[in-house]
Design brief:
The chain has 285 residues and is of the alpha/beta class. 44% of the residues lie in helices and 17% in strands. Helix 9 crosses helix 11 and helix 10 crosses helix 11. It is globular and about 65 Å long.
Length: 285
């Protein structure tokens, strides 16, 4: 396939500011001004950006509620020569935002898809957190209800027991931050973490500390604005029986007994014979 370039693409993913409208590149501005229409989450939100940069291009709403129904028509229009830009309300498209179905459909239709890089809250928070920058795992928004959220965080903890070692990044709504931190502290313990708030805006704030300390702070101090939470990787620690069981459960859910034993042995340093025996016990329980 010939090299792709954004200027020739039928669909261009354009990153937009996460707060400060000056964080918008001239190339992004020219791209939005030159396409036939701009696909966006909320036309009212995107209109603010377009007015600031004197962009007259037509806006079309594309969000989680209508994306599936609109994709066929948009792909057909691109087949016939239309060029679209896809933006989110803020940041890099598709990252915890709509658009994935459209991108997949465009690629499968053989259309060129390009991108204009720019702001991203997750990466900025990672660099400001003071925590190891790589590897990292971005999980976006966790489930809203505490039970489902705790289960999702527990799966991550079990993955760590099976060998995952990465800085964890999440998005969260301000009114759920205190509950999220309390759940995270219960599951991950006194890990170093950072709450990054209102990044690139006037009231930007990065609060660093152990998870229990951050949880206690936001129990009494209501958070405001856009929140990105960064949690440090799992520390090296002896493998307890509980940790071994969690690692085995996570591995067995995804692989054969043999592969699970090998993976957990590599992650924990325990003897395969010990892990195999415990795996057999778990299967019988």
């Amino acid at each position: 396939m010939a090299p792709q370039h954004a200027s020739a693409a039928a669909l261009v993913l354009v990153s937009t500011p996460i707060g400060n409208l000056k964080d918008f590149s001239p190339r992004a501005r020219d791209t939005l001004a030159g396409v036939d229409a701009i696909l966006c989450e909320d036309t009212r939100t995107s209109a603010v950006l377009l007015r600031a940069w004197d962009i007259k291009t037509r806006l079309i709403a594309l969000h989680e509620h209508n994306e599936e129904s609109r994709v066929p028509g948009l792909v057909e229009a691109m087949r016939n020569g239309a060029r679209y830009a896809l933006i989110s309300d803020a940041g890099t498209p598709l990252v915890s935002d709509p658009g994935y179905r459209l991108v997949r459909a465009a690629i499968e239709a053989g259309l060129l898809v390009g991108g204009i890089p720019g702001p991203n809250a997750a990466v900025l928070a990672l660099t400001l957190s003071g925590l190891p920058p790589h590897p990292f795992l971005f999980s976006g928004f966790m489930p809203v209800k505490s039970g489902a959220r705790t289960a999702a965080l527990t799966r991550l903890r079990n993955a760590e027991a099976a060998g995952l070692s990465a800085t964890l990044i999440f998005y969260e709504a301000p009114h759920r931050l205190a509950e999220f931190l309390a759940d995270a502290a219960q599951i991950f313990g006194p890990r170093p973490a950072a709450v990054c708030r209102e990044l690139s805006k006037h009231y930007e704030e990065v609060r660093r500390g152990p998870l229990p300390e951050l949880a206690a702070h936001y129990q009494t101090q209501a958070a405001r604005g856009e929140i990105t939470l960064v949690i440090g990787p799992a520390p090296d620690e002896p493998t307890s029986a509980e940790t071994l069981d969690g690692a085995l459960a996570a591995a067995l859910a995804q692989m054969s007994l043999k592969d699970a034993v090998n993976a957990v042995a590599a992650a924990t340093g325990l003897a395969k014979k010990q892990i195999y025996a415990r795996a057999l016990e778990m299967k019988r329980e």
